[in-house]
Amino acid sequence: QIAADLRVSLDLFLDDVVWSDRSDFRNLLLSNEIYLNGRLAKYYGYDLPEDAPFQKVPLEPDFRAGLLTHPYLMAGYAYTDSSSPIHRGVFLTRNVLGRFLKPPPIAVAPTPVDLAPDMTTRERVTIQTRETLCMSCHGMINDLGFSLEQFDAVGRFRKQERGRDVDASGRYVKRSGEEVLFEGARELAGFLAESDDSQNAFTEFMFQYFVKQPVQAFEPEMLPRLRQQFVDDNYHIRQLLARIATESAIRAKELDAKRHNPND
Questions:
Q1: Which of 55, 58, 75 is nearest to 66 (CA)?
Q2: Nearest-5° angle of CA 13, CA 18, CA 22?
Q3: H/E/C letters for each residue in 64-89?
Q4: How confident is the model at residue 111, as a pLDDT?
């Protein structure tokens, strides 16, 4: 029941952001509100009657950060008994920042919690991935995932793990080589909301999802043009969708005409 409720909560949150007047991409990352019913409120420690229907509830503005910390995602990118900075970091690297990751060069089994009872999750992951071959990707994956370590295996906020303060510091090296440091999910979300990488990735994934083809199949200039229009439209998601539909249809028609009339 909790898992099903969390999926409803996520769907309501996404609908609320996308179909609001502002339809602002940045609210996906920066909102500190979530939809909870009585059952979820009780499980996650918020004050609602047990029979309360789904409603918007304000969360901790210093810790929660929209989609990034939604319990459905936090639980989905975790193990049954512990968080998983690696799974969360891969999600952020590939799906939020649009970065390419090579397949793992070697298979490494995660260290079970019971075999390292005195270690935090961060310490176990650091030791597990310290080999040079691993760090070519985990140097980026781990530090992004560590920034979400204040959320346990089911997405409940925590300040401590195994009696020790959680270290949620992280870093990211941009394509330009500039290093960005952040402490916790809220600072990470603030960086992502303004990041060229995340805006490009969002535009590209939206295009592929709705057009069912990669944007690169149309023309090299389409992605940067769509992204700039997205920024100029104040990150309005529905306007981005309209532009994707229009531009892809026009370009597809031009390419089709060129195939039928190669000499034109």
A1: 58
A2: 115
A3: CCHHHHCHHHHHHCECCCCECHHHHH
A4: 73
From CA 190, how far away is CA 181, in angstroms rounded?
Answer: 11
Look at residue 262 in the predicted model and tell me its pLDDT. Answer: 66
Closest CA to 133 of 160, 107, 110: 107
Measure Cα distances from 168 to 15, 46, 90, 127, 145 in Å. Answer: 29, 23, 16, 17, 9
User: Which two tokens mark 218?
Assistant: 């149309």
Mean pLDDT per block of 10 residues along the chain (264 residues) reads: 97 97 96 96 94 93 91 96 95 96 76 80 90 82 96 95 94 92 96 96 97 92 95 97 94 77 66
In sequence order, the 6+-apart residues with CB closer than 8 A to the CB of 120 are 161, 162, 164, 166, 167
Q: Rounded to whole angstroms, how far apart are CA atoms 148 and 251?
A: 41
Amino acid at 220: P
Write out the DSSP string of 34-64: EEE-HHHHHHHT----TTPPPEEEE--TTT-
Give whole-number Cα distances, 50 to 10, 156, 162, 189, in Å. Answer: 20, 18, 30, 31
Interhelix angle for 237-260 vs 196-211, to 10°?
60
123, two tokens: 């310490």
| Contacts of residue 262, Cβ cutoff 8 Å, sequence gap at least 6 | none
Give the residue carrying structure tokens 């919690």. Answer: 113
Chain mean position to CA 181:
17
Distance CA 122, CA 166 (A): 9
